[in-house]
Write a structure and sequence with these properties.
The complex is a heterodimer of chains A (64) and B (447). Chain A contains 2 helices and 4 strands; from the N terminus they run βαββαβ. Chain A is globular and about 30 Å long. Chain A has 64 residues and is an alpha+beta fold. In chain A, a hairpin with a 6-residue loop joins β2 and β3. Chain A has a single domain, classed as Alpha-Beta Plaits. Helices cover 48% and strands 9% of the residues of chain B. Chain B is built from 18 helices and 12 strands. The longest helix of chain B has 32 residues. The termini of chain B are far apart. The chains are: A alpha+beta (64), B alpha+beta (447). At the A-B interface, α1 and α2 of A face α5 and α6 of B.
């Protein structure tokens, strides 16, 4: 599983970071999210990432 | 397509009537299932979006939607986000603007309201909560609205703006009362007088800070370049009114409703307290979803378009109901029940798209700290349903005027509210807490 946050869609709701802080980092200044895991998401975090995808109000997170 | 065809899904939607509050679940269920986008003849005629998918698609269609409130008649005469339009034409800050000006304002204020910026205020919030509770803890009686949930968001908002913290009582009553007092109330003159006193104080600090910089959001606004120019004073006062209105009554409303629900569900309250490490975040999102303090926003269609299967014409008005879309069973199983552990909670309570509530990080933090402190210091509180006063209508804010409760008295911890407010003022000034964060180091203020 790979994860990506679309910077055009993200509006800084911060739910992804609440759910999976190991994966999603918030910008200090505007609170917008980026995925800090570049390659494969570790297996033990996949469920949390899936929950972040479901919970994002802007549907800005994609997994591939 | 004729207008009649376009408007074939109709619903007589009167959200400012007390019946809307009383019949909220029935009306919501009917609208979401039968006409997720409906035409209503009320308030001069407007569209109402209640389905989760429809609200999601519409709110994010920035190219066809305008928030503009053209009070000077310089553009297309759009009426902003309030439906029906208020009698007094006053631009409600950047929530009644479109980009690029709207974006410039948010860029100026984000460094004061981001998660990293808000985190710096945590010790101040905890102190204000502790002291507010101290004032009542020995008596066994508290009004959660008047004695706690009105105070902490107000003091914090002023601190972040750069206004003296001790002035909170000039601000708290007019902001709160102007939301729940109808224009025909015998109290309206008193409310308007207190509003005048508040604006006088606000304008005084704004003028002072314009001349002599000091940390806070007022400073950022007084020096901001918006769309290549310095905005006029009236525009900036509108922005400050937006920050104050958004910062005060919404968090108060959320906190009061959540505490009322927890009083009615003591087993769930015990569970939340016990499992707070895993439940506090999801419970907060669930209270946000279920009680949606700001129930919706108006828009103007800025170009003919088709969105979510509905054709719209330029100039038509649209109400995006965050509150009703938050009850759509397509997204939320058992939507009319509170589930403290709910997952996939894509609620719309902070809005969507480029106008997402800029204070959402403040709201969550303050709510959580008040809630946890109540659970710790008055774990057996019981709200008095005969003394609880809900806003008569929920067209603007779904809030509460009073929420009295009793509990087993406990000991004071540390000093009272006035002393704490004075100490927090010193802390703010010494540590320059109201400075913006920067990308290099978020803790520059403490360095």
């Amino acid at each position: 599983m790979k994860v990506h946050v679309d910077p055009e869609r993200c509006q800084g709701h911060t739910l992804c970071n609440m759910i999976a802080p190991e994966v999603f980092q918030l910008d200090d200044v505007d609170g917008h999210s980026t995925a800090i895991i570049d390659g494969e998401v570790p297996a033990d975090l996949e469920a949390k990432v899936a929950e972040a995808v479901r919970s994002c109000p802007e549907q800005a997170i994609t997994i591939s | 397509m004729t207008d009649e065809d376009r408007k074939k899904n109709r619903y007589q939607f009167a959200r400012h009537d007390p019946e809307y509050r009383d019949q909220f679940v029935a009306i919501t269920t009917e609208m979401v299932s039968k006409c997720p986008v409906a035409w209503s003849d009320t308030y001069g005629g407007h569209w109402v979006a209640s389905g989760h998918h429809e609200v999601f698609e519409l709110a994010r269609s920035a190219e066809y939607l305008s928030n503009d409130h053209d009070v000077k008649g310089e553009r297309r005469g759009y009426k902003g986000i309030t439906i029906p339009s208020p009698d007094v034409e006053f631009q409600g800050g950047f929530l009644e603007m479109d980009p690029p000006a709207q974006r410039h304002y948010r860029q100026a204020l984000n460094p004061y309201l981001s998660p990293a910026a808000v985190q710096r205020w945590l010790p101040v919030v905890d102190e204000l909560v502790r002291a507010s509770i101290n004032e009542k803890i020995e008596t066994g009686r508290i009004d959660f609205v008047d004695d706690l949930a009105n105070i902490v968001p107000a003091v914090l908002t002023l601190a972040m703006l750069g206004i003296p913290l001790k002035n909170w009582d000039i601000y708290v009553e007019p902001v709160h009362a102007s939301v729940y007092t109808p224009p025909d109330s015998p109290n309206i003159d008193r409310v308007r007088q207190s509003q005048m006193a508040m604006y006088q104080d606000l304008f005084g600090h704004y003028t002072e800070i314009k001349a002599n910089p000091r940390p806070g959001m007022i400073d950022a606004l007084a020096r901001a370049e918006i769309d290549g120019k310095t905005p006029d004073d009236m525009e900036l006062i509108g922005v400050l009114a937006l920050i104050i209105g958004g910062g005060f009554d919404t968090t108060t409303a959320l906190t009061a409703h959540a505490l009322e629900w927890l009083s009615e569900h003591p087993a769930e309250r015990e569970r939340l307290s016990r499992e707070r490490d895993t439940l506090l975040d999801s419970a907060t999102e669930e209270f946000l979803r279920y009680y949606t303090p700001a129930p919706g926003d108006g828009r103007t269609i800025s170009a003919d378009c088709e969105i979510a299967g509905q054709q719209f014409k330029e100039g038509e008005r649209l109400w995006l109901s965050w509150a009703m879309s938050n009850r759509d069973p397509a997204v939320f199983p058992n939507p009319h029940e509170v589930d403290l552990a709910r997952t996939g909670n894509r609620h719309h309570s902070f809005g969507l798209g480029l106008h997402r509530c800029i204070g959402s990080n403040v709201a969550r933090m303050v709510f959580k700290r008040m809630l946890v402190a109540v659970l710790d210091r008055m774990p057996d509180f019981v709200c008095d349903p005969t003394g609880a006063v809900h806003y008569e209508t929920i067209g603007v804010i779904q809030g509460m005027q009073h929420l009295p409760a009793t509990f087993t008295p406990g000991p004071r911890i540390g000093d009272g509210l006035a002393e704490t407010v004075a100490r927090m003022q010193v802390l703010c000034d010494e540590r320059r807490l109201a400075d913006p964060v920067t990308r290099k180091g978020t803790e520059q203020a403490e360095a």
